[in-house]
Amino acid sequence: MPKMSKTSKQILKKAALRARASTRAHVRPSWDEYFMKIADVVGERATCDRGRSSCLIAKDKRILVTGYAGAPAGVAHCDDVGHEMHTVIHEDGTQSKHCIRTAHAEQNAIANAARKGVAIEGATLYCNMTPCYTCAKMIINAGIVRVVAKKDYHAGRRSKEVFKEAGVTLEILDPEVETYKEMK
């Protein structure tokens, strides 16, 4: 083996130190962070530009199914023909507008699981914001035991109540309330 110069040894030593430092600097995402990042990519397929909402359902550290906000299969998308807006008057008198052309990401994920025969009982659902009340009831009836939401939802009060009553764990990563186009 040829003899190495002092400079070559120093260069190799520095390279080895940099390699170890860069390995130590990398922090693997938690499973929740990992699945939430993947859910964000799933949302890029959404066909309603008001939120590009997404959902991912996982169990035992494995992705079972995904869904995103969009019109039913074979029906025109919001991105193509516009929104079908509906005004909701809440108990406190406030109003919000919702696009009712699309099925929610959570609904589509649960429907996709049903279509493919994928059991989601006991799973965790990852989504953009606290699910709406209708989605919350579907989540409970599907047997999902944990929901991880990136942000809170302005009309999520009833969902939180029913999750608590049914024993479904809800974790909101960022308490900021999600906002989207034409919300009010």
Strand content: 15-25%
Backbone CA Rg: 22 Å
Biggest pleated sheet: 5 strands, mixed
SSE-based structural type: alpha/beta
Oligomeric state as shown: single chain
Helix content: 25-40%
Low-confidence stretches: none
Describe the structure.
The protein is of the alpha/beta class and 184 residues long. The protein is 36% helix and 24% strand. Strand 1 and strand 2 form a beta hairpin.
Quick structural gist:
This protein is an alpha/beta fold. It has helices at 6-25, 31-42, 78-81, 105-116, 133-141, 157-166, and strands spanning 54-59, 62-68, 85-89, 95-99, 124-129, 146-152, 169-177. Helix 5 runs parallel beside helix 6.
Features:
184 residues, alpha/beta, two-stranded antiparallel ribbon
List the helices and strands and how they pair.
Layout: H1 6-25, H2 31-42, E1 54-59, E2 62-68, H3 78-81, E3 85-89, E4 95-99, H4 105-116, E5 124-129, H5 133-141, E6 146-152, H6 157-166, E7 169-177
Parallel strand pairs: 5-6, 6-7
Antiparallel strand pairs: 1-2, 1-5, 3-4
Helix pairs in contact: 5-6
